[in-house]
Amino acid sequence: MAFLHQSFKDTLLDLVFPQQCLVCGKEGKLFCAKCRAGLSYISPPVCSLCGHHISNDGVCPMCLSGKIHLDGLRSVFNFEGGIAQAIYSLKYHNLRSVAPLLGTFMADYLKQNPMPADIIVPVPLHPSRLKYRGYNQSLLLARELCRQTGIELADKWLERSLATASQARTQNRIERLANVNNAFIFKYPTTTAPRVIIIDDVATTGATLNACAATLKEAGALSVWGLTIARER
Ligand SMILES: [Zn+2]
Ligand SMILES: [Zn+2]
């Protein structure tokens, strides 16, 4: 169906699989008005580096003690409730039609909370994971974000290193951080120095986005911000 216009494709899909609210099942939209109103936005003030909700403006104790390559990390929602269900559907139930809506949340966030950006880079999937899932959910989100904001997409800049051991097989946090630090390779041939936003679906510790930032900065990026749909508390 590659020749079909995207919106026509969506309409066709809606006819075959009418959209239902991901939370309560009501027919119509992926989030009905009631469930959409119940989504858990991260409220200010947030740590100026990692974006976690904190009680006062400034930098949280965790960020004060760590090595951070990101210039800042922000997430739209807490990873819970309807948003957690939506992300789960996107990643594990092949529900790609949820990506435009999630991308819209990100675009709205970016319009209200601008970040320095010339380029948007999605966090790449490990090739074996990509083969298994068939698509990179972060790329779907990044594509939508670029479409709505006009920022350029660079989905070939970063690749997962094939040599990286799977995180589950590594033992402790220090090993995991060392592991993720060598997880990305910069593939772009030029040495321009752009301002980058990296996109992922969920930030847990932020280690993956931080490793991407380290790689991009080594390659000459002026600034690297992270933006995710949701954040684990
Ligand atoms: Zn609902
Ligand atoms: Zn912080």
UniProtKB/TrEMBL annotation:
Pfam families, alphabetized: DZR_2
Domain named Double zinc ribbon: residues: 12-64
Alphabetized InterPro entries for the sequence: ComF/GntX_DNA_util-trans, DZR_2, PRTase-like, PRTase_dom
Domain of life: Bacteria
CDD domains: PRTases_typeI
Family statement: Belongs to the ComF/GntX family.
Protein name, entry field: ComF family protein
Annotated source species: Dehalococcoides mccartyi (strain CBDB1)
